[in-house]
Design goal:
heterotrimer; A alpha+beta (607); B mainly alpha (330); C alpha+beta (390); A: 607 residues; alpha+beta; D-Maltodextrin-Binding Protein, domain 2; Dipeptide-binding Protein, domain 1; Dipeptide-binding Protein, domain 3; 3 domains; five-stranded mixed sheet; four-stranded mixed sheet; 21 helices; 29% helix; globular; B: 330 residues; mainly alpha; MetI-like fold; two-stranded antiparallel ribbon
């Protein structure tokens, strides 16, 4: 595809397009063939993540493809950076760039870009509202990092305190993804400090402010002129038609073991389909080459399996990354004292945990896949603790009743409902945003709990309403999927109220995130968890992190904040039989940008 | 007649103002705003957003302003600059998005309309002329079946049949090879191959109503003295039918034609959503769900304006047909 | 989602014969009542001659009886499930086997493919489940504190699984679920429909009868409400209503609120009718006779097209049933634990069901039959009201 362009003189030859020391990617199976289009699908706006995960994944560093979620930096490897060095005290991180490396428009990538990105984009508070910007990993212990540029290819990022999580958050999806990667030569025009006539430009482009204009230009999904470091460059953006198309980046900086420039595939095409069901149909027909989002639910596996021969595809495994399919989080910081008294009663929670028939949940709701479990790291994780995973998961109505009696709610009314401290029956609602399985699972749990005299009403609602109520601490209990099954140290808020995602105790979380200014002071055990995690953030060595996290998890197990139900079994994705170099198993976690972890640039189609 | 139209045009102004306010209020009715949606999306993927960023975003999008300020900014830009604002989630001007979906919506609407009429006319005439015959029963039943089967179900079933029986690609209006190709005869055929499912689904739903109206009106006309007289004169049934009764019976069609477009725009939402068509319906649904308010507002406003204009058109037609209606409005 | 189901009025001649009789009756009220009764009988005779309408009427009676006696007719309660019967196909009903008489089915053995998760159910000839009438089963509330546990049909041992129409994704009996769903689906929108009907007739009548400024005002209101988009309104209301209401309550409230928007179509028709009628001889003479406005409207004008109104009423009920299913599709309708046809159809909207469990489309058949019945009845009523029929 590119040979013609080189011939006609539109492109320089490949040697001139590659950096002097290109990154060598080991193909999963074998060296591939050039050409072909990767056909996949997207639901459109709101689904930009799928683009990020399949083509927009290049950061300074990345995770090794055999990632396990071990603590420390051992699994972080160089990517756009040719290498990095960490100072003895883990405060200074020195990166070297690749000489001769270029943006997708042919302009060189140097520390000038990094300097610009650092000073003018990521650390500028006024721009924090733009997707992808915001200090993120550059902030540590409340202090912003400093940047020191040594030469065109070397720079150092320094923190006031030892930073044990900097490299891993730079490698992860989410806030750290693509941090400091921005083309200075292209974006300068849209910043007031570099362009005196910016107001005219804003006017002529039809925007209200230069920030809006910048936000539109900084977006690689919708702006096809935006130079990138990614394997493919979007040529048909999101929004114009019924698909998004990306073509190979002729200046991509990676090669295979035979020295061939990557990517192998000429293009990636995302057909826009509103409904996952339509995608499923397309997949069954063989119109999708490789996919692991939207429709890959366990419930759809039988139909997909049946159409395998006709659609010429097969499954690959997604190693589960969740800590639980459904976690019931009581509001331990409920505004109502009465409810709070009930929910913070540990025996009450243990009793209800014993009252759930988890095997039936597995059989009825989860396609007979998965294991009864509390919220816990996956068995493959170095943090797995069987005791923590299995405590109180045994289905035992007598035991449940005993715990609830011991909790102080032995008295019942004429209908057998247990009475709360005020002498009224204990009733509460569990809010959920209707994720797959929630409704059915909660119906069963509600029946189980009714059998031990506790009235629970599932309350389904729209996602954004759920969000509003969650944030305003206005609920009895909620359910959600628990993350942190494999990415344990980076995703700790399922184990302690460390962020506003910790719905089981949002006021305690607020207390922690605001440094004690807002929210409520939590009990001593929880405060100890906060200290342990702060310590972990300042600890660079793997052993130290492992030790601290284990202590933190121990407290989680003792406190028993929330009730877990089922730990998911392996997920799946589909891959065409002609589509190669996709591993048989990819860890499933947003943090490792599944499937980007398996290097999509080396996927190829048999010609 | 002219004063009637003039007066009605004048009345439209306050109605439209009121509608624009209510439309803007409705989309803000659900709690939260677009930022809430953004946060929810990020969290679904395991990310989170800190309070400062949320604050900055609300500020940038002007979502922290009071209702009347937001409304005024919105409506004044539309009225004075023809600018419908920016869509948050698409990161594009609303006008641009409408421009890319409206043509397909029109195409779908008009082909559906033609399809509906092509079916409804013969059935309606037949079942009026042969009232209570077996044919009448069969025809009416078929027409009613169309209205009785939920649209989304029919769409899904047809899609499944198209997929398994014909091996036809599902969703969208074009196959891969034509999606970004310039217009050609091949592309046109490809479009037809995709268009039939939504056309049939939407069309069958509208057919029954039309059949019933046509049948009832025709029955009324056929028993009028002038028809009896014509028959006495020995005119053939066909000539009698086509000469007057049919024309009169068709009048109601014309008087409701003004509403067809808005009715179809809201009617196609579900079908287009199921079939992933690049039309206005799914755009509106998505905008509403993610509280992308300028986009949702613009579509609602346009549909509302179409309705008001449609009402006016049908009233004018009615007034022409029956002067008493015009007098009554005075 | 709604269709213009009402024929446009504006045809003055339609009302003429009734007009004459009514006019003559004005000074003789006793005769008038008898006369009207006979007019209704006339309508009934005409209605009877419409075969489809009679079938529709029979259908309606069946549907509403099912709704009334649902817990008795259904073999199981709506919360009974069996995880070994997830997506189980309908069981075959046997009358005789091994020379042994009596209605029975056979139980299933379940197997799951570990790789594809596909479920297979095979009939187990050793697991005979006998069926009986008036059997003991799940208890249910008859009225107030009175409960009963007899079911018209069901397994003789209440613990046995009987799935005559197959099972859904949780292993619930679809036959029972459809019966339970009839209740909500056939009734939830009735109040809304009635309200919209009342508003439409009243406001349309006033608009057409009084005319002038009142008419202008009401017509602008019609225009305004007509332009209000239903879907966004629904989305907004669904989120704005009090949280402590159940899903059914909230849905019901929305149908009521939407009724406040949905009266416009009928109002326009009624207005058109009134505009045409008020210059008719019988109305003019009634007014000259000194009849008051309200009396003229309710005694003379409305009856002249009351059958049309009834027809339009029966035709707006199907629209409400269909709306319920469509909204469920968008996730805006009723939600479990409420059982309605829409809720049941929600789980039929995927390819797995179309391929592996097509019987889950059966609630759709119930919708089709109910809507057909109502349409036929409505159609019959309008035909019957047609004064020109001999």
């Amino acid at each position: 595809m590119l040979a013609e362009l080189v011939e006609s003189g539109e492109l320089p030859p490949v040697e001139e397009r590659l950096p002097e020391d290109p990154l060598v990617v080991e193909p999963t199976e074998q060296v591939g063939q050039y050409g072909g289009t990767w056909r996949t699908a997207t639901t459109g706006p709101g689904d930009e993540v799928w683009l990020d995960l399949t083509i927009g994944y290049e950061g300074l560093v990345r995770w090794a493809s055999d990632w396990t979620g071990a603590p420390g930096d051992a699994e972080v490897i160089p990517n756009i950076a040719a290498g990095y060095e960490v100072s003895e005290d883990s405060q200074e991180f020195t990166f070297t760039l690749r000489e001769g490396m270029r943006w997708s428009d042919g302009e060189p990538f140097t520390t000038a870009d990094i300097e610009f990105a650092f000073n003018d984009l990521w650390t500028d508070e006024d721009l924090a509202s733009i997707r992808g910007l915001g200090a993120g990993p550059l902030m540590h212990d409340g202090e912003l990092a400093t940047l020191q540029v040594e030469d065109d290819y070397t720079f150092t990022i320094a923190f006031d305190q030892p930073n044990g999580m900097f490299l891993s958050s730079m490698a992860s999806g989410g806030a750290g993804a693509n941090t400091l990667i921005a083309p200075r030569h292209y974006l300068e025009e849209y910043l007031p400090q570099y362009n005196d006539d910016l107001d005219d430009l804003v006017e002529s482009e039809g925007y209200d402010s230069w920030q809006d204009l910048l936000a539109a230009k900084f977006d690689y999904n919708t702006n096809t002129d935006y130079p990138v470091m990614n394997p493919w460059v979007i040529t048909e953006p999101l929004g114009t038609g019924s698909r998004v198309e990306a073509e190979r980046n002729p200046y991509y900086f990676k090669v295979d073991t035979a020295g061939n420039q990557l990517p192998y595939l000429d293009a990636v095409r995302y057909t826009v389909m509103n409904e996952p069901e339509v995608m499923l149909a397309a997949a069954m027909q063989g119109d999708i080459d490789m996919h692991s989002r939207h429709f890959n639910e366990p419930a759809n596996k039988p139909v997909l399996a049946e159409a395998r021969a006709e659609g010429n595809y097969d499954f690959f495994e997604l190693a589960p990354g969740l800590a639980n399919e459904l976690v019931v989080m009581f509001n331990l910081t409920h505004e109502d004292d009465q409810m709070r008294e009930i929910f913070t009663n540990r025996d009450f929670r243990v009793g209800l945990s014993h009252a759930i028939d988890r095997d039936e949940l597995v059989n009825t709701v989860y396609q007979r896949q998965g294991t009864p479990s509390q919220v816990s790291p996956q068995p493959t994780s170095p943090f797995y603790d069987e005791e923590m995973a299995t405590q109180y998961t045994e289905f035992d109505v007598d035991l449940a009743n005993q715990y609830l009696d011991d909790a102080g709610y032995a008295e019942r009314d004429s209908e057998g409902r247990r009475l709360g401290p005020d002498g009224e029956p204990i009733t509460f609602s569990v809010e959920h945003a209707g994720l797959p399985g929630f409704e059915d699972a909660l119906a069963l749990i509600s029946d189980d709990w009714a059998d031990v005299g506790i009235t629970m009403t599932p309350d389904p609602m729209d996602r954004s309403l759920f969000e509003e109520r969650r944030r305003s601490n206005n609920f009895d209990a909620v359910v959600w999927l628990a993350g942190g099954g494999t990415d344990v140290t980076q995703n700790p808020y399922w184990y302690a109220p460390l962020s506003d995602r910790s719905d089981f105790a949002s006021l305690w979380a607020q207390w922690y995130t605001t440094g004690g200014e807002d929210g409520e002071e939590p009990p001593a055990a929880t405060q100890e968890q906060f200290e342990l995690y702060d310590e972990l953030l300042r600890t660079a060595d793997a052993e130290g992190q492992q030790d601290l996290m284990e202590q933190l998890l121990q407290i989680t197990a003792e406190e028993f904040y929330h009730i877990g139900t089922v730990r998911p079994g392996a997920g799946y994705g589909i891959v065409s039989n002609d589509f190669h170099n996709v591993p048989t198993t990819i860890p499933d976690s947003y943090r490792v940008k599944t499937p980007a972890l398996s290097n999509p640039e080396q996927y190829y189609l048999a010609q | 007649m002219l004063t009637f139209i003039g007066r009605r045009l004048l009345y439209m102004v306050p109605t439209l103002i009121l509608i624009s306010i209510v439309a803007f209020a409705i989309i803000q009715l659900p709690p939260g705003d677009y930022i809430t949606t953004m946060i929810a999306q990020m969290e679904a993927d395991g990310q989170s957003m800190d309070a400062a960023t949320i604050e900055a975003l609300r500020d940038r999008y002007g979502l922290d302003q009071p209702f009347y300020v937001q409304y005024w900014t919105w409506i004044s830009n539309i009225v004075f600059h023809g600018d419908f604002g920016h869509s948050f989630q698409w990161n594009r001007p609303v006008g641009y998005l409408l421009g890319s979906t409206l043509p397909f919506t029109m195409l779908l609407t008009f082909s559906t309309l033609l399809f509906t009429w092509a079916i409804a006319f013969p059935i309606g005439i037949f079942s009026a002329v042969k009232q209570y015959s077996i044919g009448d029963y069969v025809a009416t039943t078929i027409a009613f079946l169309g209205v009785a089967i939920p649209n989304f179900l029919l769409a899904l079933a047809l899609m499944y049949i198209a997929l398994t029986v014909f091996g036809q690609p599902v969703g969208g209006l074009f196959s891969d090879e034509y999606a970004s190709a310039p217009w050609s005869f091949g592309k046109f055929l490809d479009l037809l191959g995709h268009l039939w499912i939504p056309m049939v689904v939407l069309g069958t739903a509208g057919t029954a109503g039309l059949v019933r109206v046509l049948r009832a009106n025709l029955l009324d006309e056929l028993r009028k003295p002038y028809v009896v007289a014509a028959r006495a004169h020995g005119l053939t049934e066909r000539r009698i039918l086509l000469k007057y009764p049919l024309r009169v019976a068709v009048n109601p069609f014309l008087s409701t034609i003004g509403w067809v477009l808005p009715a179809l725009v809201s009617g196609e939402i579900i079908v287009s959503q199921v079939l992933s068509l690049p039309t206005t319906g799914p755009l509106l649904l998505r905008a509403l769900r993610s509280q992308d308010m300028y986009l949702a507002g613009a579509i609602i406003l346009i549909v509302s304006v179409l309705t008001v204009v449609g009402t006016l058109l049908s009233d004018i037609l009615l007034a022409r047909l029956d002067p008493r209606v015009r007098l009554g409005a005075r | 989602m709604t269709h213009h189901t009402i024929p446009e009025a504006g045809n003055p001649a339609t009302a003429a014969p009734e007009a004459l009789t009514t006019h003559e009756d004005i000074d003789q009220p006793p005769v008038r009542d008898k006369d009207r009764a006979s007019q209704w009988r006339l309508v009934w005779w005409r209605f009877r001659s419409h075969r489809l309408a009679m079938i529709g009427l029979a259908g309606l009676i069946i549907f509403y009886s099912v709704a009334l006696f649902a817990p008795f007719l259904a073999p199981y309660s709506s919360s009974t499930f069996d995880s070994d019967y997830i997506y189980a196909p309908p069981q075959q009903l046997h009358l005789v086997s091994d020379g042994d008489w009596g209605l029975h089915v056979y139980g299933y053995e379940l197997e799951q493919d570990p790789d594809t998760f596909a479920l297979t159910h095979t009939e187990n000839p050793d697991d005979r489940i006998d069926l009986g009438f008036f059997v003991q089963g799940d208890p249910y509330t008859v009225i107030g504190p009175v409960t009963w546990d007899r079911h018209l049909i069901g397994p003789t041992d209440a613990e046995d699984p009987v799935y005559l129409l197959g099972a859904d994704r949780l292993g619930r009996d679809l036959f029972s679920m459809i019966i339970h769903g009839t209740r909500i689906s056939m009734t939830i929108g009735l109040v809304g429909v009635a309200l919209a009907f009342g508003l439409g007739v009243t406001l349309g009548g006033i608009s057409g009868y009084v005319g002038g400024r009142t008419d202008t005002l009401i017509q602008r209101a019609v225009e305004f409400f007509m332009s209000l988009p239903t879907l966004p309104l629904w989305l907004g209301l669904a989120a704005a209503l009090p949280r402590d209401w159940g899903t059914t309550q909230r849905y019901f409230a929305i149908t009521i609120i939407l009724a406040l928007v949905a009266w416009t179509d009928l109002a326009r028709v009624v207005r058109g009718r009134f505009l045409s009628l008020r210059t008719e001889e019988f109305v003019v003479s009634a007014r000259l006779d000194g009849a008051r406005g309200r009396r003229v409207i309710f005694r003379h004008m409305l009856p002249s097209f009351s059958s049309h109104l009834i027809a339009s009423l029966t035709l707006s009920i199907p629209a409400m049933i269909l709306a319920e299913t469509s909204l469920s599709f968008l996730g805006l309708g009723l939600r479990a634990p409420t059982i309605s046809w829409g809720v049941l159809l929600e789980q039929a909207q995927n390819f797995r069901v179309l391929q592996d469990a097509p019987w889950l489309l059966l609630p759709g058949l119930a919708v089709v039959l109910a809507v057909l019945s109502l349409n036929f009845v409505g159609d019959g009523l309008r035909d019957a009201a047609d004064p020109y029929r001999s």
